Amino acid sequence: MWIKNVPIKGRYVTLSPLAMEHVDALREAVQDGEYWRLWYANVPKPEQMEGYVADAISGAEKGNIAYVVINNQNQQIVGTTRYYHVDSDNRRAAIGYTWYANSACRTAINTEAKLLLLENLFVDCNAIAVEFRTHLLNHTSRGAIERLDAKLDGILRSHQIMKDGSLRDTAVYSIIASEWPAVRNNLQHKLTLRV
């Protein structure tokens, strides 16, 4: 496989390959903030967590690697993230399906998780580009992606049917390999400001 399904450890977080044993901890994490109530987000309800995890694990067979995000300070699972739309032939992947317990938001956790994921792709996997996708109206997610210095590639109109039946316009962003050094420096700087 182009992306190895192994843990990635940083100072603040460890990204550990998602397993069924993580379901209970993720059920607890998702209740902190109840982000599944946001109509434009794809965050699972607590009772949907087992199926969510099982689906994510089956995606690993296609090279889509899902992780639990573990806070290194207290070893608590605070959310999940993954690589998807993995295209090894073109050395390209998307990062997404990211959600956190509210207590982990606005901390070093997401910053370092993105740094680790991007570094793994650009350094270890020699990626050409990394993509991020989100609902056009998910301004929180779009702001977080833009703070990574990802560039807006465009909007896919009426791209997906949402669980409520509405049509999702998807904002597509990317970071290309030549931009990685500046993105890395920016993320590392943001981490020093959080200490």
UniProtKB/TrEMBL annotation:
Keyword Transferase included in the entry's annotation: yes
Keyword Transferase carried by entry: yes
Domain (N-acetyltransferase): residue spans on this chain: 13-150
Annotated InterPro entries: Acyl_CoA_acyltransferase, GNAT_dom
This protein's UniProt keywords: Transferase
Gene3D superfamilies per record: 3.40.630.30
Molecular function as annotated in GO: acyltransferase activity, transferring groups other than amino-acyl groups
Name of the protein: GNAT family N-acetyltransferase
Organism placement in taxonomy: Bacteria, Pseudomonadati, Pseudomonadota, Gammaproteobacteria, Alteromonadales
